[in-house]
Amino acid sequence: MELVDLLTRFADGETIHTLTVSQKLYASLITTALGMGITFVSLIVLQIITTLFERLAPTRTADHGRTPTETTAKIIPQKNLADGQEELAAAVTTALALMLETSTSTIVIRTIRRLEDHTPPWSRAGINEQVQNTV
Hints:
By secondary structure, this protein is mainly α. It has helices spanning 3-11, 21-56, 85-100, 121-133.
């Protein structure tokens, strides 16, 4: 039996009952292979298209076209920081340097102050409940 004839008979709901088990399995394998092949080819085409888009329109970098310059680290005494805030300042400096993709020597934190919390009490209670439920 020809492949096209078998697939045509496989598509017909009434004549599918006349096929043998081996014919049903063969048609099922062919259908699966065609479906997977079409999907695989489509994914390859999409990969090629995205690669072309990356080459035609390069993504913006964080430095926005500026050339990196050499900077020298300056040791500035941090007299304004209270006791115990040096570690917090180091953590904030590191986080800023990572986000800005720059060196930590270009960032100087002189003071750290807590902002007043204007969140309603019901919102704070909900946040606390969510934090306690995640443990």
